[in-house]
Write a structure and sequence with these properties.
The protein is mainly alpha-helical. 50% of the residues lie in helices and 11% in strands. The protein has one domain.
Length: 100
């Protein structure tokens, strides 16, 4: 079983499925439509805090970003890249729990 598989049906869970949920802690498998929950939110919390700190520092200290107003553009596109790679660890089979 690969790290990003549903514990019930063994279908692949895409990182985008977490993005489209109301809360990033609860998601559904697109194959069997079972509700899943993340057991640990540490990776999501640490990633968000570190990324926000990095963005604040880069917007304040990098003159190129400040002079051309690239802070929001860099922040949004950068977050999708960071989130996609962090989702691999969040969607680990040991971190998913079935909700009945």
């Amino acid at each position: 079983m690969s790290p990003e598989n549903c514990p019930k049906c063994n279908g692949t869970i895409q990182p985008l499925s977490m993005t489209l949920c109301w809360f990033p802690f609860f998601l559904r498998c697109s194959h069997c439509n079972v509700k899943l929950k993340l057991k640990s939110y540490r990776v999501l919390a640490l990633t968000a805090v570190a990324y926000i700190a990095l963005m604040i520092v880069s917007i304040m200290l990098v003159p190129f970003v400040r002079s051309y107003g690239l802070g929001i553009l860099l922040g949004v596109f950068g977050w999708y890249v960071v989130y996609y790679y962090a989702a691999r660890y969040m969607l680990n089979k040991d971190n998913l729990q079935l909700l009945e």
